[in-house]
Amino acid sequence: MGGNSPCASCKLLRRRCAKDCIFAPYFPSDDPHKFAIVHKVFGASNVSKMLQELPLHQRADTVSSLVYEANARVRDPVYGCVGAISYLQNQVSQLQMQLAVAQAEILCIQMQQEPAPITTTSPVLLDADDKSSYYLHQNNLPQFLAFSSSNNNVIYDSFKKESLFGQDMIS
Amino acid sequence: MASTRCAACKYLRRRCPSDCIFSLYFPSNNPQRFAYVHKIFGASNIGKMLQDLPLHRRADAADSLYYEAHCRIKDPVYGCVGIINILLQEIYNVQCQIAKIQAEIAFLGTHAQSDQTQYQQLQIAPNLDPNFLSEQKGLSNSFDDSSTWFF
């Protein structure tokens, strides 16, 4: 039978798909939209450079994240992914406030039930390695986001709790 | 009187026209800003993206493109998506903590009500066999006053 069909990128770029084509493993010909959107936002040349600078085992995740960002940028040409980050940071802030309220409430209940003087080792029921105090402070994320979410007309789908790629991305 | 080229035109080594689309958003005093977006998106794509937007949205678009480029340079594999994943994890963790504390609040509330009910029962029926309740609570059979009913 004949040779391999060109990958989606070489089809779009109208060029011969070499055996060692850097795009071929990540942009199969049966999904032309995937490369089209990445090319539209980042450009084939930039994507190729990015992939070449990375080891093989990291390229699949890189392509997935580029596709995600490109889709976000097409859906929201002004804010792209950054709109999603802003939205999620607001969510985190609101939840941190709720957590603080709940912690205060439980402290009040404990004080009412045990009127003995409170020592410096507070008898809270939280875990010793509880990270809530970390979340109450500013996290290490760049606080660049001065966008007001009301300006953003894009409605974000509810984010799933699991990783976007179906596997744990956090090392 | 020398006219200053914007950072984009300086980087691209070209004349900066009076209607340069980059000049408002990539001033010459911040060359890194354009260098980052050019590295990730390319000047041509940035120009097209800005041109497709109304004037009043371009500043935010340029800022967000710079932020994304910055994230991608810092984390070439995941870029902004890595931050989104971290935020999702944070949201989940804080939700779990809130749920845990609310469950503890509910438990303490129930426990307090149960103690209150038993105390009221003792007040109403002081002639109950004291051994009955002490057996329930695991207390010693010998007691003198009602204060020993409580832990």
Automatic annotation (TrEMBL), chain A:
One Pfam family, short name = LOB
Question: InterPro entries from the entry?
Answer: LOB
- Show the stretches that span the lipid bilayer: none
Q: Where is the LOB domain?
A: 5-106
What family does this belong to? Belongs to the LOB domain-containing protein family.
Protein name, per record: LOB domain-containing protein 12
Source species: Abeliophyllum distichum
UniProtKB/TrEMBL annotation, chain B:
Q: Origin, by domain of life?
A: Eukaryota
Q: Where are the transmembrane segments?
A: none
- A Pfam family that this protein carries is LOB
The record places domain LOB at 4-105
In terms of InterPro entries, this protein maps to: LOB (IPR004883)
PROSITE patterns this protein is in? LOB
Q: Which family does it belong to?
A: Belongs to the LOB domain-containing protein family.
Q: What is this protein called?
A: LOB domain-containing protein 24
Q: What is the lineage of its organism?
A: Eukaryota, Viridiplantae, Streptophyta, Embryophyta, Tracheophyta
